[in-house]
Design goal:
Blueprint: E1 17-18, E2 20-25, E3 44-46, E4 52-56, E5 61-66, H1 72-77, E6 89-92, E7 97-103, E8 123-128, E9 133-137, E10 142-147, E11 154-159, E12 166-171, E13 176-180, E14 188-191, E15 198-203, E16 209-214, E17 220-224, E18 229-234, E19 240-246, E20 253-258, E21 262-267, E22 274-280, E23 293-298, E24 304-309, E25 312-318, E26 326-327, E27 336-341, E28 347-352, E29 357-361, H2 369-378, H3 383-387, H4 393-399, E30 406-410
């Protein structure tokens, strides 16, 4: 593990901040010289309390590390066993790990579900390339569940944020499965209707809705998590979605897509209206088919989007702004595959094709009181309920994020417009 000195720059007013690299994790096994698959970091995750970091470093291995990572060396040298939760652990999954999810998860705005028999321990679900899902107890490293049924790679996993042990999995077998780990036999429901491999799935903060995207399909699928039925498609794309994420209040749904270039569309999932579009810098001369967008995720306060493309480790964009808030230099030897914010903010982690993980310091933002009020309200009422309120239209536009509506070109720091 390396800890290079942090650096930042702001060469001119309005320019993006260069990504400040905090730490870097390198895998034990170097990538094969012949380019074979198996060493990729397809997923990285922080635990809900921010005290643990999970890293899929290829070769069927998952590392559980205490956060902050400065404590790793201290825990390695510790001779006592009185703090098993804080020690580093290695999980041998036996097959390539494509997806990770910690659970149970409780959104700060969601009502916790009281489920009898649900263990209080923190769990980690691992989705494998053979279609199986293994679930581990983080404190002990013990395997608790082995879920079978998918007929293809388990590409994405997510626990419902209501505190229950309900797990949603998306697979290359074109299905979503909803597993109830609190019941004997791990009852599950299968959602069918995708036209191809499921790339990504996300659960709304109130645990009422699942969004999913699949390979080669320009539609976004919305499913009811209460009735286990299909709700509707979000359409109008010219590109193929590859990643999706709900905002912390559930009022927005970000979709990352690419074809000849990449694009991020931010929808209102309740009305189906596309509110914000962020497009690739048109002045960058690169072969986008070799540098597609891979993942997108909302920050913990809901005002920033982080996304990775295979030519840069990370970009961070503030909603409604033209220029990126942060971007890293062009990559030379490694391509970004995944990203996730620390639940307390300030740090974003990215995983790469050669098995590395990099941690970046993110722009600090103190949300306004009006935004915090909007988030608290939107966690409990839909867009349709907001529009029915007897309040001025300007306030309705703010509460539904329509005040940020527009199309933006994500010009990189080299091609931003000169200041007047």
């Amino acid at each position: 593990m390396q800890a290079p000195p942090c650096s930042s720059m702001d060469e001119r007013r309005g320019a993006a901040t260069a990504g400040a690299l905090i730490l870097e994790l390198k895998p034990v096994h170097p990538p094969p010289l012949d380019g074979r698959a198996g060493c990729e970091t397809w997923s990285v995750q922080f635990s809900p309390d921010g005290g643990c970091f999970a890293w899929s470093l290829g070769h069927g291995i998952v590392k559980l590390l205490p956060w902050p990572l400065q404590d790793v060396e201290r825990h390695r040298s510790a001779e006592t066993e009185d703090a098993p939760r804080s020690r580093e652990r290695t999980l041998q999954c036996g097959h390539s790990v494509w997806s990770l999810a910690f659970g149970p998860v409780t959104s700060k705005f969601a009502s916790r579900t009281n489920v009898k028999g649900v263990p209080p321990e923190l769990l980690l679900a691992t989705g494998l390339n053979n279609g199986n899902i293994k679930i581990w107890e983080v404190a002990t490293g013990k395997q608790l569940f082995h879920l079978t049924g998918h007929q293809g790679v388990v590409r994405d996993l997510a626990f419902t944020p209501n505190g229950s042990l309900t797990l949603v999995s998306g697979s290359r077998d074109k299905t979503l499965r909803i597993w109830d780990l609190s019941k004997p036999g791990n009852n599950f429901h299968v959602l069918t209707g995708h036209t191809s491999w499921v790339y990504s799935c996300s659960i709304s903060p109130d645990s009422s809705m699942i969004a999913s995207v699949c390979r080669g399909d320009t539609r976004v699928y919305l499913w009811s998590l209460r009735s286990y039925t299909f709700m509707k498609n979000l359409q109008g794309f010219d590109m193929f979605p590859v990643s999706c994420d709900f905002s912390p209040d559930g009022a927005l749904l970000a979709i990352a897509a690419f074809a000849t270039r990449w694009e991020i569309d931010v929808f209102d999932p309740h009305s189906g209206e596309r509110l914000i579009v962020l497009r690739d810098c048109l002045f960058c001369d690169h072969d986008i088919m070799n540098t597609p967008i891979r993942a997108v995720c909302f920050s913990t306060e809901g005002l920033h989007l982080a996304f990775v493309t295979e030519d840069r480790a990370i970009r961070i964009w503030k909603l409604g702004q033209d220029n990126p808030a942060m971007e890293t230099d062009l990559l030379r030897f490694s391509n970004g595959l995944c990203c996730t914010f620390h639940p307390h903010g300030g740090v974003v982690a990215t995983g790469t094709r050669d098995g590395h993980v990099k941690f970046w310091r993110t722009p600090r933002l103190v949300p306004s009181l009006s935004h915090l009020s909007r988030v608290a309200l939107r966690c409990h009422i839909s867009t349709h309920q907001v529009m029915a309120l007897p309040i001025p239209n300007k306030i309705k536009d703010f509460l539904t994020y329509r005040n940020l509506q527009g199309c933006h070109e994500a010009r990189c720091s080299m091609h931003q417009l000169p200041l007047d």
